[in-house]
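This section describes the prediction task in plain terms. A model, or a person checking by hand, is given the sequence of a single protein chain and must write out its three-dimensional structure as a string of tokens. No templates, partner chains or ligands are provided. The sample shown here is typical of the held-out split.
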Amino acid sequence: MVKFGVIGSGWIAEEFVKGAILVDGMTFSAIYSRTHEKGEEFSAKFGGAEVYTDIVKFAESDIDAVYIASPNCLHYEQSKLMLEHGKHVLCEKPIVTELEQFDELLNLAKSRSLIYTEAIMMLHQPARKIIKDALKEIGNITTAHFDFSQLSSKYEALKRGENPNIFNPKMLTGCLRDLGIYCYYPAIDFFGMPKKIFSSAGFVETGADGYGTAVLDYDGMQITLTYSKIGQDYTGSQIIGDKGTITIESISKLTGVKAHYSDGSSKILVEEDEKHILMGREAQDFYNYITEPDKFKNEYDECNKIISEVCSVMYRVKTECGIL
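The expected answer:
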């Protein structure tokens, strides 16, 4: 049995708990919230987990693992605190905001035989293998375009002169870390590390990046990544070969995937799925890493290798674009 707690009481934490409680052996036991009222409201939805408003007391509780869904600027310090108190950590993206922080915390976890990894849904979906197998069927791939452009619900507040968290550089947020990250993962997972990177970003009034573009250059192939929080995409993503094209409606979830072949035929590869089901698969892998570390070591190590590579590429992009 793995008793887990969550840090944060927003919608993403709720979706995670919905998925995690479907995993046989996982029990939702505690929540840390800035206010007792919000914590109690969240807890009541799932049978009454214990509520904490003191982060140290939460870390000292008898939970085995924690899912961190707090603002980006708190990920490093909260992950470190939990690891120092012997808790396995699954942290929302971006797992850290500075390159050296990931290695530091991963080494801390290893020294204490703990699991530390990032909550990226796509790494835990069967769609990964389905798409990788389909790539072999579309011939020579020279072009791909991954896009995640979603008009922020906070954009109107920004235009009114307010400074919502998602557009506040002090919170270490912005488009690259919030949406762009979902484009970098499939690029690096499917095609490896690029030879060259060209990138640029556009900034909103607060100084945060509101949109961005990157070109990942490989031998004989280029991948274009586009992402925005101040505009909405409706066409999705695609991987283009000389014998066919794979289209992906949701790059963050790897759902709505279809293969189109040069003979005019097509087939659905991956359909849509509910968010909590996708996060449930993420929770299942987290549980597996904790309870059977030897059996799942290679899978866990591969996962963290990709996370490290994405951290490295995004750090280069952040630096090149002048993102604070």
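For orientation: The CA atoms of residues 192 and 309 lie 9 Å apart.
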